[in-house]
Amino acid sequence: MKKTFILLFLLSILMPFLVIIIGNGKLTDFEFYSIKTNYSFVEDDNRKMNFYVYSKINNPLISYPNKNSYQIKLDNQSFFLDNVECKEHTYKNNSLIIIEADIPNITDTEYISETCELIIINSSYKISLNLGSFSIIDSKYCNLLSLSALSATYSYIDDSKYLTGINLELSGNYNFIESFRIGGFNYGTLSRSKFNLELDNEVDIRDYIINYNKDRVEKEYLLQIQNNKIFIPISYVLDYFVKEGYIVIKIDNVNYYFDTFPFMVTYPDYNSFFNKLEKGEFINV
Amino acid sequence: MKKIKIFGIIFLFIFIFNSIDLYAEDQDYLTYQEIIMSSGKLIKNYTEEEINSLMHSQTYKAHGEIITIDNQNVQASYISRVTELMENSSSSSIVYDVSYQVETSMKVSFSFSGTFSAEASGKIGAIKSEVSAKIGIDYSTMETRSEKENRVLKVNVDPNSQYMVVIKGNLTVTNGLYELYFFFVRIKYGLFEIVTLQSQYAALEKRSL
Predict the structure, then answer these.
(1) How far apart are alpha carbons B3 and A167 in whole angstroms?
(2) CB contact under 8 A, A265 and B169
(3) What are B29-67's pLDDT values in tens digits?
(4) Is B3 helix (H, G, I), strand (E, B) or coil?
(5) Which one of A36, A211, B143, B203 has the fewest CB atoms closer than 10 angstroms to its CB?
C-alpha cells in the first residue's frame, strides 16, 4: 500500500514534465489562416487599416500587440505596423483576429502592390501570412467624388462569394465615364453597365448581366452617361476577396476617388471560403 | 386542513413564477429599424391569442418541458441605421469626416419573454441549451457577442442634403414556445427567439432636406 502511494506521488510530479516532453512541437504548432483579399485604403489623417487572420485556437499570442512585432511586406518595400490593436472574435471553434494599425505614409499619389505578406514575430514563434494585395491612395491625390448612393452586389460563383457589381448614383452632371476600379485590382466593366438599375446586396449576377465573366478585365471604356443611377459589373485582375475598398473613377477626363467603403460589413464564415483559405507559415523560435 | 395546505403550497408555487419579463441577450436586433420576415413574426409582435393557440396545441405533460417551434430558420431581411449623419443646409458642398462603427463578425442573439425574472440568467441559459438542442443549433460554438470596429468616411455632402450610412442584411429567425410542467401544472412558459445574423452590407444614402 505504501509503495503504491509513493508511486502515485512520483507520477503526479513527473506527469507534467512528460506531457511537455511528449507534446513539444505539437503544443506550439498553431495554425493561422488568411483569405486572400484585395486590401485598399485611403491615406489621410489618423486613418487605420485592418487585416484579418483566422486562428485555430482562441486567444493566440499574436493578438497581444505588446508581445509581438507586426510587419507588412509588399512588392518592393516593407514596413512595421504602428499603434497596433487586436480584436478577437471567437467564431465556431475558431477565432477571427482583426489587426488594426495606422495607415503608413508611403505615397503622396497611389501605391499598388500585388503582394501583401503579414509577418508576426513574438518570443515563441514567427508566422507569415499571404494576405493578398495592397493598395493605398493619398486623399489629396485626386478630387473627392460626390455620390448620392453607393452599395455593392455580391454573388456566388463556384461556391465563393464575389463582389460582382457596384450600384452608384452620381451627384452632378457628367458626360462620360472612362474608367472605374476598386483599389488596384478590381475594374468596372463599363461596356456592360446598366443604367437606372439598382440590384440587391445578394443576387445571381447572371440573371441581370448575361454571360457575366469576373475574369474579363476591361480597364478603359468610354461610357456615355444616360442616367446618374448606374450598375457597374466588377471584374478581377487578382482572384481575391473584396470586402471594402476605395473607388477611383475617371469622369470627363478628371480622376476622382471615393473613400474606403465597407461594402460587406461581416467578415466571411471560416467555412464559406474554405477553398480560398491559405495557411500561414509557422516557425518556432 | 392538510389538503388546504397542499393546495396553498401549489398555488404559491405557481404565483412565484408568474412574473413576465423580457430577457434578451444582446438586444441589437430589437433596435433594428426594420425586419421583414418571409413568413411569421417576431415574438415581440405576438398577440395573446397567438400565444394561447401555441399553448393549447400541445397536450399537457406530467413533468418536464415542451418546446414548440413556431417559425424555424425563417429568412428575413433587415435595415439598421448606423449613422445619422451628415447634414448640409448650406448652398455649397461641404466635406465631412464621419466616424461610425460596424460589427465585423456574425452574431447570434437569444431572446426570451416569459415567466422568469431577468435575474434568473442561469435558468435562461438552461432554456437556451434545451431549445438549441431541440432545433439543432450548436449554440456553444456560435458567437453571441461581437466588437465594433471604428471607421471614418470622408463624404462630399451636397447642398441641402442629408447623408447616412445604412446597414442592411439578411438573418434567420427561429422562435416558438417553451413550457415547463410540474405534476400536470404549467408552472413556467415563455416565447423564445434565436436570431442569426447571416450577412451585413453597408449602403450610402442621400436625402434632400
Answers:
(1) 74
(2) yes
(3) 887 888 999 999 999 899 888 888 887 665 667 778 888
(4) helix
(5) A211
